[in-house]
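<discrete_fold_record>
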Amino acid sequence: MGAYYDEIEIEDMTWDAAKGVYHYPCPCGDRFEITKRQLADYEDIATCPSCSLIIRVVYDPLDFEDYKSDTESSDKEDE
């Protein structure tokens, strides 16, 4: 997939603790969203829920390694 609306640095996005997502304004008036879980899983595409535009999030996956291991260990405790 190479038709991104834009490439945005993670530092330029805003963390929304209530929804648990990073977000960035979309030209349609809504906002692009991506979760920490997606970032931990090396997914770098943020989508807008109101239109078909997507952005590529530029970030260091190592910054989210701890998040992934925290959720995996809590998943194992549930078993």
Observations:
- The radius of gyration is 14 Å.
- Strands lie at 6-9, 14-16, 21-25, 31-35, 45-47, 54-58.
- The CA atoms of residues 47 and 54 lie 5 Å apart.
- The chain has a mean pLDDT of 85.
